[in-house]
Design brief:
- It is a single chain.
- By secondary structure, the protein is α/β, with parallel strands linked by helices.
- The protein folds into two domains: 183 residues, Rossmann fold, CATH 3.40.50.450; 117 residues, Rossmann fold (3-Layer(aba) Sandwich), CATH 3.40.50.460.
- It is built from eleven helices and eleven strands.
- It has a seven-stranded mixed β-sheet with strand order 3-2-1-4-5-10-11, sandwiched between helices.
- The longest helix is centred in the middle third of the chain and has 22 residues.
- Bound molecules: adenosine-5'-diphosphate and 6-O-phosphono-beta-D-fructofuranose.
- Adenosine-5'-diphosphate binds next to helix 4.
């Protein structure tokens, strides 16, 4: 095994609060173990365009509390081609980068896996996405902050919903997964949760709203995951309005507000531990894996499992959300 002297680090895919804390942990841990660190800007794009910057301990001072990613991120479709990855490999060699830490979601791990397998580059992934949809970890960096942001927003919407007897359809992020929606729903006491993992019956939703109204509940909050199979919150609201024309309905799409802001303490902790453990793993000779946390223990999952296995929603929690809303 070639001795690792220089470690590269990049953030890829959608930014997530806590990515900066993870970069900081990678830099500080690598430095502690006598390695140099090269930051790659703009995700995989930076590998193609030679966007390299040296990082020292002082470069990551006061970054732990900042949202976004100071290395910047990107979606880089070109990286799906072997030609682009060969260019990346040439640039990596020119920079004398011996190993790489990729902070991102499942798409980023696909790219990282190919880079590792095609060129023998040691690579470790850190799950950084607000979606929490990665197999092999209980939580991804950014999820806790995103849920807290959504909860604060829904609490505010509740005031208006109550004051005006309105039903709000609140769309939260989560690409094809309902994790943000479910946690936001339970945490705000929403009346209903629509997620892609559970089939939604609009008639039943309307029956439920009518039942609630007979119980003198004059307002409501319906959380809709953006990947909901019935359609967006706007579409779901229109379907409900068609069946219940007397209802005052409103739609709020929380959007990218959920991706920003200072990371919560939970996200800073997760990012710090995983950033540290990613570097130690590389120095111990591990490669082709994602570092995650399961029951508070660090676990390593081969990339192909992390991006191909389905990350299941907790169906018990779905039931609890329903029971608590009655
Ligand atoms: P995330 O990492 O948050 O899931 P994306 O799905 O957008 O975000 O993936 C981030 C980047 O990872 C893509 O823009 C692309 O550069 C790279 N990537 C995604 N899928 C692949 C793939 N199949 N092969 C190589 N690179 C990929
Ligand atoms: O993966 C994170 C995420 O915020 C998803 O929840 C959302 O579907 C997607 O990224 C939005 O991506 P973009 O900002 O590129 O539109």
């Amino acid at each position: 095994m070639k001795k690792i002297k220089t470690i590269g680090v990049l953030t890829s895919g959608g930014d997530a609060p806590g990515m900066n804390a993870a970069i900081r942990a990678v830099v500080r841990t690598a430095t502690y173990h006598g390695c140099d660190v090269v930051g790659i800007q703009c995700g995989f794009t930076g590998l193609l365009q030679n966007l390299f910057i040296p990082l020292q301990n002082h470069s990551v001072a006061q970054k732990i509390s900042l949202g976004g990613t100071f290395l910047k991120s990107s979606r880089c479709p070109e990286f799906k081609t072997k030609k682009a990855r060969s260019t990346a490999w040439q640039n990596i060699q020119r920079q004398r980068i011996d190993a790489l830490v990729v902070i991102g979601g499942d798409g980023s791990f696909r790219g990282a896996d190919l880079l590792g397998k095609e060129f023998g580059l040691p690579v470790i992934g850190i799950p950084g996405t607000i979606d929490n949809d990665i197999f092999g970890t209980d939580y991804t960096i950014g999820f806790d902050t995103a849920v807290n942001t959504a909860v604060q927003a829904v609490d505010k919407l509740r005031d208006t919903a109550d004051s005006h007897n309105m039903v709000f359809f609140v769309e939260v992020m989560g690409r094809d997964a309902g994790f943000i929606a479910l946690n936001t729903s339970i945490s705000t006491g929403a009346e209903a949760t629509l997620i892609p993992e559970v089939q939604t019956d609009i008639d039943k939703l309307c029956e439920y709203l009518e039942l609630e109204r007979r119980k003198n509940k004059t307002s409501g909050i319906i959380i809709v995951a953006e990947g909901e199979e019935q359609g967006s919150a706007t579409v779901v609201a229109a379907k409900v309005k068609e069946k219940l024309p007397n209802y005052e309905t409103r739609v709020t799409i929380l959007g990218h507000i959920q991706r920003g802001g200072a990371p919560t303490a939970n996200d800073r902790m997760l990012a710090s531990i995983l950033g540290h453990d990613a570097v130690v793993a590389l120095l111990e000779g591990k490669t082709g894996m994602m570092v995650g946390t399961v029951n508070n223990q660090t676990v390593f999952t081969p990339f192909h499992e992390a991006y191909s296995r389905h990350c299941k929603i907790n169906k018990r929690w779905v039931n609890i959300a329903y029971i608590l809303s009655l």
